[in-house]
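Risk mitigation, structural track. In case the binding assays with D-gluconic acid fail to produce interpretable data, a predicted complex structure has been prepared as a fallback.
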Amino acid sequence: MSDVQHVVVMGVSGSGKTTVAQLVAERLHRQFLEADDQHPAANVAKMAAGEPLTDQDRAPWLATLRDWLAEQTRAGRPSVLTCSALKVAYRDVLRAGGPVLFVHLDVTPDVLAQRMGQRVGHFMPPALLGSQLAALEPLLPTEPGFTLDATGTAQSLAAQIADRVRALSDTTM
Ligand SMILES: Nc1ncnc2c1ncn2[C@@H]1O[C@H](COP(=O)(O)OP(=O)(O)OP(=O)(O)O)[C@@H](O)[C@H]1O
Ligand SMILES: O=C(O)[C@H](O)[C@@H](O)[C@H](O)[C@H](O)CO
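Fallback model:
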């Protein structure tokens, strides 16, 4: 089995996690989970009201995601998960669910604001972007994963990620 069992597509709101991760899951024929759908209702209400989440708010949500990863690991199902995973401590929680490769979609604040401004029907207000960027801790060299300049098209980003995952799987079989 490959070391890259779970790909976690991470980054701040509007970076393209959902769009890109869905394409990666299709390309690699993997299980897919959208972390936004797993937030407790209180978290969604808080964000929709323009209030950033705290570490405490995120704790039960991260535990749910970790448990889902652990379930996939136990069943031997490689997966793709979207998750903001803004802090090292949050990523450590996810890593407890099995072998993970983080892919950080890095987008400039200008492009993020443009993307969030254009998006319709999403609970996350663009006003929370500053707090997302302030909370973000880039991947450390000691963490498994890589950062991608995510200003390209979603299809080209997904192709790059799928290629990297396949290459890593080939070298670890
Ligand atoms: N590579 C891309 N190039 C241009 N636009 C993109 C790209 N990826 C996503 N978008 C658009 O940007 C907006 C945000 O994308 P998306 O919802 O996938 O981001 P997200 O990181 O999942 O956000 P959130 O965490 O807030 O749900 C959407 O309107 C989407 O269509
Ligand atoms: O950790 C967080 O603050 C949240 O996960 C957010 O990032 C949102 O859920 C998501 O981005 C919604 O748009």
